[in-house]
Design goal:
alpha/beta; about 425 residues; Aminopeptidase; homodimer; about 35% helix
Chain lengths: ~425, ~425
Amino acid sequence: MLPVSQRRLRSDIEANGEFGSIDEGDGYGRTVLAGTEANGAARDQFVHRLEAAGLDVTVDGIGNIVGRWDPPTADSTAAAIACGSHLDSVPEGGLFDGPLGTYAALEAVRAMQDAGVHPLRPIEVVCFTEEEGQRFGNGLLGSSVATGRTSLAEALELTDEDGVTCASGLEEIGYRGTGCLDASEWDAWLELHIEQGTRLTTADAAAGVVTAIAGITHCYVDIAGHADHAGSTPMDCRTDALAAASELTLDIEAMARGDTPGSSTAVGTVGRLDVSPNATNVIPGAVRLGVDIRDVSEASIESLVAELTTSAERIAADRGVEISIDRPYFVPPESMAERCQSALLAAGDRAAVDTLTLHSGAAHDTMNIARVTDAGLVFAPSRDGISHNPLEWTDWTDCAAATAVLAGAIADLAGVDVS
Amino acid sequence: MLPVSQRRLRSDIEANGEFGSIDEGDGYGRTVLAGTEANGAARDQFVHRLEAAGLDVTVDGIGNIVGRWDPPTADSTAAAIACGSHLDSVPEGGLFDGPLGTYAALEAVRAMQDAGVHPLRPIEVVCFTEEEGQRFGNGLLGSSVATGRTSLAEALELTDEDGVTCASGLEEIGYRGTGCLDASEWDAWLELHIEQGTRLTTADAAAGVVTAIAGITHCYVDIAGHADHAGSTPMDCRTDALAAASELTLDIEAMARGDTPGSSTAVGTVGRLDVSPNATNVIPGAVRLGVDIRDVSEASIESLVAELTTSAERIAADRGVEISIDRPYFVPPESMAERCQSALLAAGDRAAVDTLTLHSGAAHDTMNIARVTDAGLVFAPSRDGISHNPLEWTDWTDCAAATAVLAGAIADLAGVDVS
């Protein structure tokens, strides 16, 4: 078992938590948007830590940072094993979402170095730019560029709400590098991330091996009724857009819940609902709903969208409202590579860490990488499932255990004899 | 039958429609907020028309305009019969809401003058200030002051969204008068208003005699759930505040609809709904609903509020959300005086105008007046029930027919021999 150091990992993550830290309230909050001063400081520390471990650091055109370890035993022309996560956060986010996976990747390399193992492939430790999409609006930005999903030029032209481009944000902090990372050149990719759910804590497991990342579609539903006087319009003369929207919201919940155990990975959420004119004494004339539907099966997503459409048609017929559905966003589900899952499960066994296989309902950079090379994702437990919140927490022993699983899998994929 | 002039009434209302008129779109839109230039111009025309009919005009401290007719046959110390409505509008309101009743009252006096009838009581034609409550926030403002519900000092200190006081708004247009109109001194009050519903057009009746004005209560319901990740939170681990709010919205609709025909006057509306954080990919953590409940029976209103509370408790228990209900606003229902209703119905018969008895779901200045003296309310038909909209429309023949009913009832109440 590789000598992962909980002390070293914790020291890195705690130091990273100082950048953009929120002093108020409970927990350990931080706000680290891409291209801000806090993000620059967090990147600087990461680069120093990579260099301290003897890694060669490069920064690409969208600010993705790569620390490359070319062990003397490796064929430097062989495709690398890559591993990492992100350092940006949501506003008032927590300590672990991103930094755990980024520093765990570095810790895995340091543990291999300490153990004197002999990898046959180079290993790259990666920090992707703007995973959260909180400043320039496109989540998974760095990995989208590294996988050809978004062009570098297009990504650099994205602007924040003040009109500042992504290019100048990165330049400002000294992280607009050159070239473009190409994830398809990697032999395999692994990411450690917090679960953001409660399945691991419920099962008392320290690591979860992800089988698939759910696909996502967003539908925007416009419901048009009649805005009438709440006093002078009898109940049987109304075309209330909000009552119609309420039926649809409950239908979406019921559909996603499903009647059979087979649909346990499906989720459906009406997260956004805007009423017009939104006055207590006026019957709502129009409502717009933002619907988020996810599942690990594309067929299941399509089936849920079809059910949503059927429900909307029934409600329109029953209530005399007009309903239109727009569906501008769809990202298909991605299965994790069998060899990556096997490497992670075997590493868990060797390290005597209780593991669980599960799916990811949340999107991660790994979702992009899986489209161009073999990819794997491993979760560490989230206390009470809380994330994107200063109260986000993973016990340090669990951080170390999940990092040991990650390190063991990297070593295995890199050709180290782990038997 | 009194010789009500459709031409004269139409000319007054069309001329009034020029003040604050909206040029764009279909219909006849106007924006006449209290104390604005448009409101000043509309008031000036009204005063000129009152004076042209020989009425003595006074303006009280809150800008209520009274045109008093002291017929030679009347005892000038007797309590007056008063009649009128308002000239202010909602933003982009229509031609008839307020002006019809204001100018119909004047037309009733002119018709009596033309007919040479002999009233035994003085008659007062009234325009109340800020019925719509669109600038200084208190609807029914002028009648609230005239009935002692709001003090003159308090009313004058109300401010608009730019911090301008009601006092200076009225001064600006020359309508901050002196003293305070006391509606309790009137022997009786009548108001003609558009229905803002479709019961009259459905029944093909030109006038509706109101039996009672519905009471109103507003409840604000706060629902607290947990804002969680829409992807990583399984359906059975959610505390979705919007799904809970949707159930409550449908419960309120079902309650107000009722299962028995006896509750046909009850209405319940969720007019306002605000979601937090209101992002498509986040499970709603909190929702606030603004609920409007009305009925002509106070017991029915209380029963609906009790049902709302029971529903909220059930939903809270079922879904694990926390629900609190605040109820800051309640105006009890008001019955119209039997003698006023009888006078209106009899006048309809004499004028051969088809009348209908019905309740008012909307509040009107008459609601205040009914608390201090005998009051009656008569409706003219609204095409398609549309109001607060440039498309608001009442056929001129219907305007004249309803005015004939009003004039006949005023004459009757003022002691004219109508037999």
